[in-house]
Amino acid sequence: MSDNLRKYALWQFRDFGRDRAIALMIIGLALGFMFVSPVKMMQVQITEASAKQLVLVSLQQIVFICAFVALNGIVSNDRKQGYYRFLFSKPVSIPAYYAQQFLIYFIGFMVVMAVLLGVFAIMVYPLSPVAPLTYCAIVFLSLGGIAFFISSVFRFDWPILAAVFLGSALFHTLWENSDGWRKLVIAMLPPLNKLTSMLGTLLDRGTVETNDLLWLFGYSLMFFLAGLFVLRRRPIA
Fold first, then answer.
1. Are the beta carbons of 216 and 194 closer than 8 angstroms?
2. For 176, 215, 223, 228, which has the most beta carbons within 10 A of its beta carbon?
3. Confidence band (pLDDT; 50, 70, 90) for 80?
4. What is the distance of C-alpha 206 from the center of its chain?
């Protein structure tokens, strides 16, 4: 069974490159151009400080959109398109297969983000990629478990995924300082508001708040494990 799983890894890498990596590159380059081109047109000399500010403004938008695109349909696409009939005709653990797919998508996502930061270094200013790539990894892993669970449960996961992410951001903004039942609601929602200030902190100090990171990863891990449980107990068809 483990041999079959390793063989599938090559197919999963290929599918990510074909179905997602190209789209992520196009999205990243298009959005990056929107942020960078006005600065280049003004012919302003770009310093390290201004380059960090550009990364701060642009990467927060790019990484959330790209993570959403990378994670969308991570399980449900095989169910919708009927690929499960081919994929699981050989003996392989369904939860292990999709856990491996999650890991491969994470690696592919990070490679695309590294290429985009390389383009920024060539075209704009050569910043150290450590802080931006760390932020990209945090965003993907914070969203990933939630997306994995939703995709494991629902056939059409992207509208639910969008509603959860956007709703969480909206309610945290509106009810951040509220008491009573509103405080209980936002405590149950994904703590994605904690990602807002992380990139700036990483760029300035190279660190993040440990408690925020544990809360983000713990919440995501809980849903990732719940998704694996669903895949183990529920028929994939």
1. yes
2. 228
3. confident
4. 21
Please name which of 59, 204, 186 lies closest in space to residue 120, comparing C-alpha atoms: 59
The pairs formed by 7-15 with CB atoms below 8 angstroms and a separation of 24 or more are 8/87, 8/92, 8/97, 8/100, 9/100, 9/104, 12/100, 12/101, 12/104, 12/105, 13/104, 13/108
Instruction: Kindly report the number of other CB atoms within 10 A of residue 102's CB atom.
Output: 24
Write down how long the chain is: 237
Measure Cα distances from 141 to 17, 51, 71, 104 in Å.
19, 26, 10, 13
- Number of neighbouring beta carbons within 10 Å of residue 83: 13
| Type of residue at 2 | S
Q: Is residue 180 very low, low, confident or very high in pLDDT (cuts 50, 70, 90)?
A: confident
Can you tell me the distance from the alpha carbon of 218 to that of 234, in angstroms, rounded to the nearest whole number? 24
Q: Can you tell me the distance from the alpha carbon of 144 to that of 67, in angstroms, rounded to the nearest whole number?
A: 8
For residues 116 and 29, is the Cβ–Cβ distance under 8 A? yes
| Cα dihedral: 163, 103, 155, 149 (round 10) | -60
Q: Give the model confidence (pLDDT) of 92-141 as tens digits.
A: 788 999 999 999 999 999 999 999 999 999 999 999 999 999 999 999 99
Instruction: Provide the residue ranges of all domains of the chain, joining segments of one domain with +.
Output: 2-233
Token digits of residue 3:
């041999």
b/e map of 124-152 (b: 16 or more CB within 10 Å)? bbebebebbbbbbebbbbbbbbbbbbbbb
* Under 8 Å between Cβ of 222 and 188: no
